[in-house]
């Protein structure tokens, strides 16, 4: 692993390599921490013996969990780190094993989205910023996650025909498809008829989709902003043209504390578990309002039974 001392310090300070600080402020890296970091980053040590490590250390880094069965995946706090490492290695089978195990344990797509996918992609993004990962690893990781989430969706019952409609996407200049796919999956699991329009959709086209599908909810995933001022203008123009009955939900890593006050929306969520709770509450209210409306119609028609 040919890197500078400053790079190692920066990785330690950002938490990519867990460290212990001595009373004098020096960083100490344990063998386990180093092993996990090297596995996640698909890196190796050029001269293990210089650090007092024998050649078996490299074998442990490369093959430490090969052959691990689903029944052996028992440490929840380790799952996301293992998932990150397998994504970086492009090991789709290992990622599938972990994701299906967690889904079996939690039955929650929102939990998988937050604790596996979002955390892992954030780590990979941090590693990319530090030069510890390549672009292809981040992109391929997104592809793997998208395929695995699509597989999970096959096991989720289809929403009822009477379920309210929600549509969403990422807007133009935002090429990330995974976040809006995760939102679609979470909504379908809690009972919405959700349709992801995809990524990089022009605002006029999103408006056309609203007119076609007549949704009760629209979500916009905001991962990348090309021009902040133009984005704010376009977003607010789109928002102002929505029917008053439509709920507009926003979220995403680019939606920071300085951007939110500039946008006109109904609600935002920090993570997908919060979003699942909000969508469930909205769904319950929707059915309650529909029931009350049906009862009102029945009274007007003098067909109420006691």
Could you characterize the architecture of this molecule?
The protein has 306 residues and is α/β, with parallel strands linked by helices. Helix content is 54%, strand content 8%. The chain contains eleven helices and seven strands. The protein has helices at 5-13, 31-41, 56-63, 76-89, 92-106, 109-129, 135-154, 178-190, 203-213, 228-240, 272-300; strands at 20-21, 27-28, 165-170, 193-196, 217-221, 247-251, 267-268. The strands form two sheets. It has a five-stranded parallel sheet with strand order 4-3-5-6-7, with helices on both faces. The chain has a two-stranded antiparallel sheet with strand order 1-2. Strand 1 and strand 2 form a beta hairpin. Helix 5 (92-106) packs across helix 7 (135-154), helix 6 runs antiparallel to helix 11 and helix 7 runs parallel beside helix 8 (178-190). Residues 54-74 and 295-306 have low confidence and may be disordered.
Give a quick precis of the structure.
54% of the residues lie in helices and 8% in strands. By secondary structure, it is of the alpha/beta class. α4 runs antiparallel to α5 and α8 packs across α11 (272-300).
The low-pLDDT segments are 54-74, 295-306
Order of helices and strands: HEEHHHHHHEHEHEHEEH
Mean pLDDT across every amino acid position: 81
- Let me know the number of strands: 7
- Structural class assignment: alpha/beta
Described by strand count, sense and barrel closure, the largest sheet is: 5 strands, parallel
Proportion of β residues? 5-15%
Write down the Rg.
23 Å
Q: Taking strands numbered 1, 2, ... along the chain, how are they ordered across the largest sheet?
A: 4-3-5-6-7
- Shape descriptor reads globular
